[in-house]
Write a structure and sequence with these properties.
Elements: E1 4-5, E2 18-24, H1 26-43, E3 47-51, H2 54-64, E4 70-72, H3 85-96, E5 103-107, H4 117-133, E6 140-147, H5 153-160, E7 165-168, E8 171-174, E9 197-202, H6 206-220, H7 224-244, E10 248-256, E11 259-266, H8 289-296, E12 299-305, E13 309-317
Parallel strand pairs: 2-6, 2-7, 3-4, 3-5, 5-6
Antiparallel strand pairs: 1-8, 7-8, 9-10, 10-11, 11-13, 12-13
Helix pairs in contact: 1-2, 6-7, 7-8
Length: 322
């Protein structure tokens, strides 16, 4: 039987980041669970950062009025790429956790607005990575509401792999389905959709890589301003291949589901699962390429193993009128 753990006061904080999944159905259950979590925080002298869809913001504001301990943030300003979220949460938590004051986050992802299967997969991976990002932080905790009213148990099972705890009836329970292993159970990347362009590159070929991507993205209907951003991103990724991936790589480009995709393959291995997801420090040497790619592209997929090397896919959305 799963042990139910009562919420603890702030002077008995868990020694590790507390990451809870909260399945609910309807507005009433959403409010009861999130308000209970918020009031626990306020009573314990903690701050709360809330990032939920706009309709849920209205519900909570109506119950909380102008509670100074609660801050609402808008994740839509970050764009669609889930790879930007951890850096944002770090900044929000640090801003609210002045001194040693603990901070709680409430983050509900708009799962049903996922643009593609790849986007949904990266959203789930982001949820799992939160455990790695905040693993040593006993001062932060997070509740992730999930509306399971459509009874999609497959989606709920996938999310359960990402959360060590599940909240039920105002308490949290250990989640036996949580994947705590060092290696996340990635879904395999799908094959390119339809015909694709391919280019092998090595030292001295960065201009050729940029030219290829610019031409192919223009043909696909990517706007010029986004083409310029993409040119910076592909330069960073191709440079990483040459410096750290055996001196060479392979570029593929294609269009799929109103998205222009650039795929880079090389023989390198990226050991840091957080690479590109936290803002580089001012004195940091290297490590900015993947961060820039995440900031400039609508989605970034990374698959890397010692045996098979690294595959990185940069996704750029194509406007409907194109």
């Amino acid at each position: 039987m799963t042990a139910i753990l009562p919420p603890k006061p702030s002077d008995q904080a868990e020694p590790v980041f507390r990451h809870e999944l909260y399945p609910y159905r309807g507005e009433e259950q959403f409010l009861s669970g999130t308000l209970s979590y918020i009031h626990e925080a306020i009573e314990g002298g903690e701050s709360v950062v809330v990032a939920v869809p706009l309709d849920k913001v209205s519900l909570l504001r109506g119950e909380l009025a102008d509670e100074p301990a609660v801050t609402f943030v808008d994740t839509t300003t970050l764009g669609p790429n889930p790879g930007r979220l951890i850096g944002a949460w770090v900044a929000w938590m640090q801003e609210r956790g002045q001194g040693d004051r603990p901070v709680r986050g409430i983050g509900e992802t708009a799962w049903r607005e996922a643009r593609s299967a790849a986007h949904l997969s990266e959203l789930q991976y982001h949820e799992w990575l939160l455990n790695r990002a905040f693993a040593r932080s006993s001062a932060w905790s997070m509740l992730c509401p999930y509306d399971d009213s459509d009874e999609d148990q497959g989606a709920l099972r996938s999310l359960s792999r990402c959360h060590p705890l599940i909240r039920q009836d105002g308490h949290y329970a250990r989640n036996e389905a949580y994947v705590s292993a060092a290696d996340y159970p990635f879904e395999a990347l799908n094959d390119p959709c339809g015909p694709y362009q391919e280019l092998s590159y090595t030292h001295g070929d960065l201009n050729a890589v940029r030219s290829k991507v610019t031409q192919c993205s223009s043909d696909a209907g990517v706007p010029e301003d986004q083409q310029r951003k993409l040119a910076v991103a592909v330069t960073e990724i191709a440079t990483n291949s040459i410096r750290h991936g055996g001196g060479r790589g392979t570029l593929r480009t294609w269009t799929q589901d109103a998205t222009f995709v650039c795929e880079f393959r090389d023989a390198g291995y990226i050991s840091d699962v957080m690479a590109g997801r936290t803002r580089p420090t001012t004195d940091q040497v290297g490590g900015r390429g993947l961060w820039l790619a995440h900031q400039l592209c609508d989605l970034v997929e990374i698959r890397s193993t010692r045996e098979q090397g690294t595959t990185i896919r940069l996704h750029t959305d194509i406007p409907p009128h194109r």
